[in-house]
Structure prediction request, 305 residues.
Amino acid sequence: MKVLVATEKPFAAAAVNGIKAEVEAAGNELVLLEKYTEKAQLLDAVKDADAMIIRSDKVDAEVLDAAKQLKIVVRAGAGYDNIDLAAATAHQVVAENTPGQNSNAVAELVFGMLVMAVRGFYNGKSGSELFGKKLGILAFGNVGRNVARIAKGFGMDVYAYDAFCPAEVIEQAGVHAVANQDALFETCDVVSLHIPATPETKQSINYALVNKLKKGGVLVNTARKEVINEPELLKLMAEREDLKYVTDIMPEADAEFRKFEGRYFSTPKKMGAQTAEANINAGIAAAKQINAFFKDGCTKFQVNK
Ligand code: 3PG
Prediction:
């Protein structure tokens, strides 16, 4: 069987070698499509693939139509908003993710960007410290939990809200649970976003919510650009010169945000999971999940049930 790795943003070489070893150990063939620039290349590559490993690559109805042999697509990573789940189900394709495999890498980048923000983007002037500051974590999944762990090392006072995680679970992790996201923004100096992009969360980070942040507040986004209401955040940053926004997902309105020099930073390309360790963990997990699916019909990580 053919296992296609289709990654517009490639895995580290060590991860590709590990995936290849897993795929071949199961008697299958690995086909690589890396750094593709046109959708036509993906449509061509999926034609005879039985399984596919992707990252943020878009798998929509057109891709699924072209993938006549495809039985399973695994998103090597957490967020699967790039897969049209209804279309996958209609095509009888199992869609999976690899939860937790790249979450430490994303959590570490939160602090890379956060230190930079509170130190004035290294402008030579006096900045501030994270020690003793209140950090709010919006969504307490795998990334949020790693952020909490690292924040404690910085001596931060950590708060979290998650609509789907009971307060007791948050408290057991030594984190203050708050009642809702308004309370999180009202309480904290810094809020780090870890919500997925869903119909409910899209554009939910808006003027009214971010305006609740304390003076000198910092918003950190390593989640998805779609959760931000960009026109409203732009309006707020124009009104509040104390606010900073650092993001690992370049906004649509990047050029407009750039006007807030010294208060805004975006990575040019999503870098959160772009470490050798995360690539190896997520890539090999994806290959193992495909092997388990073909061997035993295992669909433990299916997201289009
Ligand atoms: C994820 O959802 O796992 C992260 O956003 C990483 O995405 P990437 O594989 O495109 O870097």
The radius of gyration is 20 Å.
